[in-house]
Design brief:
Layout: E1 2-5, H1 13-19, H2 23-30, E2 34-40, E3 43-54, E4 57-65, H3 74-87, E5 92-98, H4 104-109, E6 113-118, H5 121-125, E7 131-132, E8 135-136, E9 140-146
Parallel strand pairs: 4-5
Antiparallel strand pairs: 1-2, 2-3, 3-4, 5-9, 6-9, 7-8
């Protein structure tokens, strides 16, 4: 169901852009990250990208589920997979997201706690306004979870 992708990662750009909607931002971490794809009937329906940040920390840079497969538990399973994958070489998994009513409750329900905020991240790093769940994203909210 979940497989690692080591080459031609760009072929999953359409899915990656669901989780991070500006291509140049995705390219900043795609090559150095570990890409995993969830397939159903030979179709890629979810992705995640994990980077190793050093000092026992991994970062979930992107997690996305195709719209037709959302709200079926795949995102939660991908997140659990990321945690298990990182557990063998990291103590903590961090992730950044917008202050959205769609994502913040999801990560909190999955056991993540707020760590810090990067003010104006979306304004400073994206070439257009980003909206999610009817809210304009301004600050990046970082969450973390201890893995051990």
């Amino acid at each position: 169901m979940i497989k690692a992708v080591t080459d031609n990662k760009e072929r999953y750009m359409d899915l990656l852009l669901i989780g991070d909607e500006q291509e140049d931002m995705v390219r900043r971490y795609l090559d150095r990250g570990d890409l995993f794809v969830w397939e159903e009937n030979s179709e890629a329906v979810a992705v995640c990208v994990i980077t190793r940040e050093g000092d026992g920390v991994c970062e979930l840079k992107n997690i996305a589920v195709s719209p037709g497969y959302q709200r079926k538990g795949i995102g939660r399973k991908m997140l659990r997979f990321a945690e298990e994958y990182c557990r063998s070489f990291a103590d903590k998994l961090i992730l950044g997201t917008g202050d959205s009513p769609l994502t913040v409750p999801f990560y909190e329900k999955c056991g993540y706690s707020r760590a810090h905020t990067v003010k104006n991240f979306f304004i400073d790093n994206y070439d257009h306004p980003i909206f999610e769940g009817g809210v304009r994203l301004v600050d990046m909210i970082y969450f973390e979870k201890e893995l051990r």
